[in-house]
Write a structure and sequence with these properties.
mainly alpha, 6 helices, 77% helix, globular
Length: 242
Amino acid sequence: MSVWEYANPRRFMAVSARLLPWVAGAAALLCAAGLTWGLFFTPEDFRMGHSVKIIYIHVPSAFVAINAWFMMLVASLIWLVRRHHVSALAARAAAPIGLVMTLVALLTGAIWGKPMWGTYWAWDPRLTAFLILGLFYLGYIALWSAIEAQDAAADLTSILCLVGTVFAVLSRYAAQFWNQGLHQGASLSLDAEENISDVFWQPLVLSIAGFTLLFLALVLLRTRTEIRRRRLHSLSLKARLA
């Protein structure tokens, strides 16, 4: 069976209906476990004190915000190349979730930055790129809403997604591109010397997994809603022409 069969809306609706309860349940379990463990059962850091515990919300939300855009990029490329409507609708469904995660990451980063840097905001390369990524999310959502012709909207938002990917990359790798800035290095890295202590690392991994599955569950749910909305739009057009 080809993977492209899932681009059929009916096939997608059938499969997603079976997957959604399991993905949502796993997301709830992992988020509850990671956040409870991290927020209530980890010690304070010798430098950051209890403020370190904000990483269990800040890092997963930032991780999802950046990777949600990459998921939108893949879905947009599939739309541009294969013209599969489900991929375009999945990208549209992911955008508001990515925007919310961006706002959560910016807010928690500001709360974390005040005791660490003495300010809520600094024009650090990574923070600036992340803020611009949030503006691209807003622009993407606004462009979908502004164009009535759905295929034309999918084309233009896919191009916007390609451009915005630059800032998604910068948000992730700005610390490597510029040897300056206040933002700390990666909390999780393939380089073991850069990782945080295991006592913080283990619940953080659970939180990231939980947020990722939460994103997946919400994308499935919102994509199902977008498919239904498109069906209703088509039916209303047919009713007007009848």
